[in-house]
C-alpha cells in the first residue's frame, strides 16, 4: 500500500468500521481498490470514517460509490459516512449523490 493512503478496519466481520487516512486521489484509486477489495471481503461495513483524509478528490467519491454498490449487491445497508471533509460534501452535492449515503 502506498505511504500516502492508509486504511484501518476495526470490529468484526458483522460490524466493521473503515477509517481512511492520508491522500485518496484518482492517482491512488487502483491501489485502493485492490487493497480494500481484499480487506473488505466477507465484512459488513457499518461506518466509514474520512476524518483522517488529508487530501481527496473525485477518486474518493468513486471509491465510496464502489463500496456502496458492493453493499447493495450483497443485500446490506450502505455504511454511514462520518468525518466527511467539506470539499467532498461539495462534490457529492455537485454530482447529486448525497442521497446515496447516510452522512453523519
From TrEMBL:
<dbReference type="InterPro" id="IPR052746">
    <property type="entry name" value="MlaB_ABC_Transporter"/>
</dbReference>
<feature type="domain" description="STAS">
    <location>
        <begin position="17"/>
        <end position="104"/>
    </location>
</feature>
<protein>
    <submittedName>
        <fullName>STAS domain-containing protein</fullName>
    </submittedName>
</protein>
<dbReference type="InterPro" id="IPR058548">
    <property type="entry name" value="MlaB-like_STAS"/>
</dbReference>
<dbReference type="InterPro" id="IPR002645">
    <property type="entry name" value="STAS_dom"/>
</dbReference>
<dbReference type="InterPro" id="IPR036513">
    <property type="entry name" value="STAS_dom_sf"/>
</dbReference>
<dbReference type="Pfam" id="PF13466">
    <property type="entry name" value="STAS_2"/>
</dbReference>
Amino acid at each position: 500500500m502506498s505511504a500516502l493512503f492508509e486504511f484501518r478496519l476495526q470490529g468484526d466481520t458483522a460490524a466493521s468500521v473503515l477509517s481512511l487516512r492520508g491522500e485518496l486521489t484518482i492517482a491512488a484509486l487502483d491501489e485502493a481498490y485492490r487493497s480494500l477489495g481484499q480487506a473488505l471481503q466477507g465484512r459488513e461495513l457499518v461506518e466509514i470514517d474520512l476524518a483522517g483524509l488529508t487530501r481527496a478528490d473525485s477518486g474518493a467519491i468513486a471509491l465510496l460509490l464502489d463500496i456502496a454498490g458492493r453493499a447493495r449487491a450483497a443485500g446490506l445497508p450502505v455504511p454511514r459516512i462520518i468525518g466527511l471533509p467539506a470539499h467532498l460534501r461539495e462534490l457529492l452535492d455537485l454530482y447529486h449523490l448525497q442521497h446515496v449515503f447516510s452522512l453523519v
